[in-house]
Amino acid sequence: MNIRKLNKFFTNLFLKFNIVTSKTVDINKLKLLINLLKPIKTNHKLIRIGGKNDGGYLIPDDLENIDCLFSPGVSDVASFEQDLIKRIKGLRCFLADFSVQNSPIKHKSINFEKKFLGSISNEKFFTLKDWITKKTKSKNDLILQMDIEGFEYEVLINTEEKLLNRFRIIVIEFHNLEKLTEEFAFKFISAAFEKILKTHMVVHIHPNNTVKHLCRKYKGLELPSVMEFTFLRKDRIKTFTKIERFPHILDRPCTKKRADFILPDFWYH
């Protein structure tokens, strides 16, 4: 069993039996974090890139002069990458995933590496810094789209603020968010969010409805287990207002097998 499958196995085990591995977090600390993550409406409208269901994400329509997309955890779905190639002339797409043999699509703009993204570089993993340094010398802006099954936290914590600032738009699927109720997990997860919030702001959130155990209720709050977050770098935001209603008109369920999971009110009100 590889590292990713082992991580997923224990995550599902914790969810199934609702195991609490540390003391519970102070509710005020949790509310403060969620307040920082509430999405805003900016001067850039949101557009849907990718498939109608899984693999499609809402991002700001601010795509001029972006040179590269870095997309770790591609698996067997690459509709997001395909769509961006059509929309951005000359875009180069760098894909990575150790769990598959090849890129799910073939295109002259696609470059695939059989590696996982992580906090170290070895025969199976590389860091975001090492990957970008190897693949591009461009000084223009980049896009990051990351779905790496829980490894997103260590990657963000390990990545320098200067490097994160290279990405104009960042899309990340965050996992195990129901563990925000646990003190130890809260410190780890909140550290990753606080890192990215130094340079970016949240412009969209969409819960993933494919997870069997959709959320944990904690002192009046609902914590969806897996959610897709879209971030826009702060210097691209000229004006912004609060978002008063979800879902967005362009949101679609990740799987058609069940109804979409609507973002709970406290995450945006």
Beta-strand percentage?
A: 25-35%
Q: Please state the second-level CATH architecture.
A: 3-Layer(aba) Sandwich
Strand order of the largest sheet: 6-5-4-9-10-14-11
Global mean pLDDT: 91
State the total count of DSSP E strands. 15
Unreliable runs, pLDDT <50, ≥5 residues?
A: 12-20
- Shape descriptor reads globular
Which sheet architecture does the biggest sheet show?
7 strands, mixed
Name of the level-1 CATH class? Alpha Beta
What percent of residues adopt helix (DSSP H or I)? 10-25%
The structure class reads alpha/beta
Record the SSE blueprint.
Blueprint: H1 3-17, H2 27-36, E1 40-42, E2 46-49, E3 57-60, E4 66-72, H3 79-87, E5 92-96, E6 110-113, E7 116-117, E8 125-126, H4 128-135, E9 141-146, H5 152-158, H6 161-164, E10 167-174, H7 183-196, E11 200-207, E12 215-218, E13 221-224, E14 227-233, E15 240-242
Parallel strand pairs: 4-5, 4-9, 5-6, 7-8, 9-10
Antiparallel strand pairs: 1-15, 2-3, 10-14, 11-14, 12-13
Tell me what you see in this structure.
- With 269 residues, the chain is α/β, with parallel strands linked by helices.
- It has a single domain, classed as Rossmann fold, CATH 3.40.50.
- Helices cover 25% and strands 26% of the residues.
- The protein is built from seven helices and 15 strands.
- The protein has a seven-stranded mixed sheet with strand order 6-5-4-9-10-14-11, with no helix packed on it.
- The protein is globular and about 50 Å long.
